[in-house]
């Protein structure tokens, strides 16, 4: 086997592992990591709108809100037409995996750890009366905490943000 073959096999293995991790996670699309995604000049905004994407503008800069309406489970339903930022985003776990600093199972363990905490925060939000799952996690927690200060929710959110910043955001 040549060095080129070995490199190609490694790239295939990495792509397969990344695909498994992404479809188990979805936090870059479900409103946990981000509240909005800014669209780029090369994005087909009319095409995205025809698909049903609601595009907003802030200082003339187009964006869409998270969670993405095209996310089903942890799978993008417009994968081939997804915006540029979606195409190019790699979370820290994927970057560490590509650099061979962690294994796929290490990354999956981090995903599971964060998903467990996210589920706890979601349950807390529901108990406090917020069922607006169409809004990002940050938006929901800000709204709830404004009206119902809750030390447990604030602590869970603090720990979650630390984990997201340390393990997923680039």
3D architecture notes:
- With 170 residues, the protein is mainly alpha-helical.
- The chain has one domain.
- 55% of the residues lie in helices and 9% in strands.
- The protein contains seven helices and five strands, in the order αβαββββααααα.
- The strands form two sheets. Strands 1-3-2 form a three-stranded antiparallel beta sheet, with no helix packed on it.
- β4 and β5 form a beta hairpin.
- The chain is globular and about 65 Å long.
- 22% of the residues are buried.
- The model has no long low-confidence stretch (mean pLDDT 94).
- It comes from Brevifollis gellanilyticus.
- This is Zinc/iron-chelating domain-containing protein.
- Pfam families: CxxCxxCC.
- InterPro entries: Puta_zinc/iron-chelating_dom.
Q: Summed up, what is this model?
A:
The chain has 170 residues and is mostly helical. Helices cover 55% and strands 9% of the residues. It has 7 helices and 5 strands, in the order H-E-H-E-E-E-E-H-H-H-H-H.
Write the SSE topology:
Layout: H1 3-25, E1 36-38, H2 45-51, E2 56-58, E3 61-65, E4 71-72, E5 75-76, H3 84-88, H4 92-98, H5 104-127, H6 137-147, H7 151-167
Antiparallel strand pairs: 1-3, 2-3, 4-5
How big is the Rg? 18 Å
Q: Please count the beta strands (DSSP E, at least 2 residues each).
A: 5
Query: What is the beta-strand fraction?
Result: 5-15%
Shape: globular
Order of helices and strands: HEHEEEEHHHHH
Task: Note the main sheet.
Answer: 3 strands, antiparallel
User: Termini distance?
Assistant: 35 Å
Give the count of helical stretches: 7
